[in-house]
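Task card 7
Instruction: Convert sequence to C-alpha cells.
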Amino acid sequence: MKKIILWIAVIFLGMQLIPVDRANKPVSKKTNFVDIYKTPDSIKRILQNACCDCHSNETKYPKYAYVAPISWLIKDHINDGRAHLNFSEWGSYGKELKENAMEKAAATVKSYEMPLPAYVSYHPKANLTTKQRKILEAYFSHLEIK
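Output:
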C-alpha cells in the first residue's frame, strides 16, 4: 500500500513539471470588442465577470489553475472558448462570423447555457441575474455589426 501511495505521489509531482502556457496575447484597441463598440461600462463589467476568462485574451487564472491535471483541463476549456468567440480578436472576424457569434452569444446567455454552470460554481461574480442576462442579450441582439 505504501508503494502505491508513493507512486501516486511521484506521478502527481511529475505532472506538475508539464508546463501550461498561461500567457495572454496582448489586447489591441483596434481588435477588442469593447473598444470597437465603445461598450458601456455596465456591460463591460458583465463581460469581464462572466465571459472574458474564457472568451478573450484577458484570462485571469485562479490559483487552482496552477495544479495539474486541473491546469490542463482549464487551459483546454479556455482554448475551446476562445475558438468559439474571442472578444479580444473581434476586429479580425468577418461580418458573417460576427453576426453568427452575436446571435449565438445572445441565445446562450438567454438560455442559461453561458456562462457554464461549472464556471459559475467557482466564480460567483459570473452568476448573472435575470436582469443582467436580459441586458446582455439585448446588447448582443441589437448591436450594429461593424
